Amino acid sequence: MSSGKAVIYKTDRNHFSKEFRKAKWQTLFFGYGFIELKRLNSILEKRVYRIYDDVIEFSNEHESARIEISEIEKVVTETAEHQREHGLADLIITMRETGKTYRLEGIKHADALEEVLSLAIRAENEQRKMREKSKGDYTEYKLGGLEHMNSLVGLWQQGMISDEDFEREKQKFKKE
What we know:
about 180 residues; PH-domain like
C-alpha cells in the first residue's frame, strides 16, 4: 500500500440509473426485482478506486489492480449518453509497457481527475528524461579513474608531469 492519504472514488449509483429503475418496476410487478437490486448494490460496493500520489488501486467485480502512475501512458475520459445527464464519465487508463487498459466506471468529476493524472504523468515523464540525461556515458573510464584522471590533469597543468607522460597515462585509462 502506498504511503499517504488516498482520494477515494466509487462508481456513482446513477451510473446504473436505468438498471435500478427497471429493477424497481420488476419488484412492484413481479417481486424478483429484489434480486436485481441486491446485485446492483453489490456491484457498487465492490467498485472502489483509491488514488494516491504515486499509485492507483482499484477493484471491481472482475479484477483488482495496483497501477503505478509512473507506468501510465495516457488517461482519457469517455462519457456515455446515460452518464452525461448525471455528470458522470468513465476514466480509461492505458499502460505504457503493456498497452493494457483499465476502465474506472461512473466517476463524478472524472474530467478533473483526468487533468490531475495527466499532469502527474507529464511530470513523471520529465523526471524520467532528466534521469536518463543525467546518467551520462562513463564507460570510458574505470571506477575511480575519473578522479585519478582529474588529478593527472592538475599535475600536468602545474607542469609537474610532461606532455608525453600525461598522454601515456591518459591512453592507459582509455584501455582499461
